[in-house]
Design goal:
CATH topology of the largest domain: Rossmann fold
Number of strands: 12
Helix content: 40-55%
GO molecular function, one term: transcription cis-regulatory region binding
Mean pLDDT: 89
InterPro entries: HTH_LacI, LacI/GalR-like_sensor, Lambda_DNA-bd_dom_sf, Peripla_BP_I
Radius of gyration: 24 Å
Order of helices and strands: HHHEHHEHEHEEHEHEHEHEHEHEE
CATH superfamily of the largest domain: Response regulator
Keywords: DNA-binding, Transcription, Transcription regulation
Distance between the termini: 66 Å
Largest sheet: 6 strands, parallel
Structural class: alpha/beta
Strand content: 15-25%
Shape: elongated
Protein name: LacI family transcriptional regulator
Pfam family, one: Peripla_BP_3
Low-confidence stretches: 1-5, 56-69
CATH architecture of the largest domain: 3-Layer(aba) Sandwich
């Protein structure tokens, strides 16, 4: 990339290498017409410049006109098996896909192991012209992806609180307000010992929810606030629930950071001979179909994840169309009481 953040071109590589543009094209497409020495020189020059050949010019569509058939990138740090079970991302991706279909666009999805792998992948996608822009998810505090992708000059829509997203357009839900509503609801039912089973501590939205949970418990004068950190999987949610319910003074209510862990928690309660909600109340987050298929059905903090994904995709196309897009908050998750919450057991 140039200092101005412009995408490097075949002309730039040719000028730096001291060869023709045709020679660069032949070298990168591994076609006859240049010597192996010249080919190696061109490839080394391009690597030093951080340029990769445009494998798919159509990926960018008509950026700047608003009428492109852009390909949007999405990288998720999750094991494939876990992602397939997690309702949030399934609904979120379907929401993005609904807008891409309307625009004749496409989604380039990849699962990675860590942030370093994601940064290198995003760089490759952008420099080789495979994507028009990218959706950034699971933001961390001081996330290294933010400066790395900002340096590329790549259009990005960041799904996270503005305090996490740097210069990128942010779309987010007010998770702090939602957590506070959940705690107040359970306290109004009479619960004084409430636990929170959250996601990985390094994730920004997990940290914000934890802070809101602690603040709400303190505000209500509830000292018995217990927390468990998980990887969002059902297995980890089950382990956290088992640990809480096996403690000497078990909580009378548990708030989970996703539906999958809440369903696992419901199974653990049954395994331990506890009745829901007579012995312990359980409250899920996201409110997917899973919450309505259990017995009892799970109370949840509900929000329209499909619509959230669609809003993210529309914001991306607005950016690609040259519009100035400001960050915005999407509707806050709201409480949907069902059969898994009720008053605590008598002392």
């Amino acid at each position: 990339m140039s200092a101005a953040g412009q995408r490097l071109t075949i002309r730039d590589v040719a000028a730096r290498a001291g060869v023709s543009r045709a020679a660069v094209s032949l070298a990168f497409n591994n076609k006859p017409g240049v010597s192996e020495t010249t080919r190696a020189h061109i490839l080394r020059t391009a690597e030093v410049m951080g340029w990769e050949p445009n494998r798919s010019a159509r990926a960018r569509g008509s950026r700047g006109t608003g009428a492109g058939t852009g390909t949007v990138g999405l990288v998720i740090r999750r094991p494939a098996r876990q992602l397939g079970l997690e309702p949030f991302y399934m609904d979120f991706i379907s929401g993005i896909g609904s807008v891409l279909t309307e625009r004749s666009g496409a989604l380039l999805l990849r699962l990675v192991r860590d942030l370093d792998e994601e940064i290198e992948l995003q760089r490759h996608w952008w420099r080789s012209g495979q994507i028009a822009g990218s959706v950034l998810v699971d933001l961390q505090r001081d996330d290294p992806r933010v400066p790395a992708l900002a340096e590329l000059g790549m259009p990005v829509i960041a799904v996270g609180h503005p305090s996490l997203t740097g210069p990128f357009t942010a779309l987010w839900t007010d998770d702090g307000t939602a957590v506070t509503e959940a705690v107040r609801y359970l306290a109004a039912l009479g619960h004084r010992s409430i636990a929170h089973v959250g996601g990985p501590a390094e994730l920004g939205h997990s940290a914000l929810r934890t802070e809101a949970f602690t603040a709400a418990m303190t505000e209500l004068g509830l000292a018995d606030a217990r927390r468990r950190v998980t990887d969002y999987s059902g297995d980890d949610g089950a382990r956290a629930t088992r640990s809480l319910l096996a403690s000497a003074a078990r909580p009378t209510a548990i708030i989970y950071d996703n539906d999958l862990m809440a369903v696992a928690g419901l199974s653990v309660a049954a395994e331990m001979g506890l009745r829901v909600p007579s012995d312990v109340s359980l409250l899920a987050w996201d409110d997917s179909q899973l919450c309505r298929l259990t017995h009892p059905s799970l109370s949840a903090m509900s929000h329209d994840i499909h619509a959230f994904g669609a809003e993210v995709a529309r914001a991306m196309y607005d950016v690609l169309g040259g519009e100035r897009v400001t960050g915005r908050q999407v509707p806050t998750p709201s409480l949907t009481p069902r059969g898994s919450t009720g008053p605590p057991p008598p002392p």
